[in-house]
Design brief:
Helix content is 30%, strand content 30%. By secondary structure, the chain is of the alpha+beta class. It folds into two domains: 105 residues, Dihydrodipicolinate Reductase, domain 2, CATH 3.30.360.10; 53 residues. The strands form two sheets. The chain has a four-stranded antiparallel sheet, with no helix packed on it. A hairpin with a 5-residue loop joins strand 2 and strand 3.
């Protein structure tokens, strides 16, 4: 999810979070609520949970003229449901104006194959990797670290003891 957030809006400098393990009581979080703002003023909110009894994936990207809503993941278990992209275009200037809605269902996940193909092509063609670089991975791990640090109680109880 952090990869997708960065893909759409870039890096975040201001991060707030609430983290808990009140449900399962393990040494790992049950729930993470994070709110982030970047230098452009864009805000992202993230909720990751291990207490939801039904697997769920949903990301919304709200733009000036449209809303993109991606739900489901074509995982091996199929427990996240079918993958669907809904594009809701705003029509007119009214905040609650009419909308054009388009939905696309995805039946096959070719993402792994496409990533491997791109990686192999970069090696064969001796060109730099464009997507999913080791720098991207490091930045996402630093982002996650900052989310943990932003909840002072969580950080004190679980990382400084």
């Amino acid at each position: 999810m952090c990869d997708l957030i960065r893909f759409f809006t870039g890096n975040y400098d201001e991060i707030y979070s609430f983290i808990s393990n009140d449900y399962w009581k393990h040494d790992v979080e049950d729930n993470v609520f994070a709110m982030m703002r970047n230098k452009k003023g864009q805000v992202a909110m993230l909720h990751s949970t291990a207490t939801q009894w039904q697997h769920r994936f949903r990301i919304e990207v709200i733009l000036k003229e449209a809303l993109l809503e991606l739900t489901g993941i074509l995982s091996g278990t199929k427990s996240y449901g079918s993958e669907k992209l809904t594009i809701i275009e705003r029509v007119g200037d009214e905040p609650t104006g009419s909308q054009n809605k388009t939905t696309k269902n995805y039946l096959h996940d070719n993402s792994w194959k496409e990533e491997i193909d791109e990686f192999a092509d970069c090696i064969v063609s001796n060109r730099p990797i464009n997507n999913g670089t080791s720098e991207d991975a490091l930045i996402v791990m630093e982002m996650i670290f900052k989310i943990y640090q932003a909840d002072k109680t969580w950080w004190k109880n679980f990382y400084q003891n």
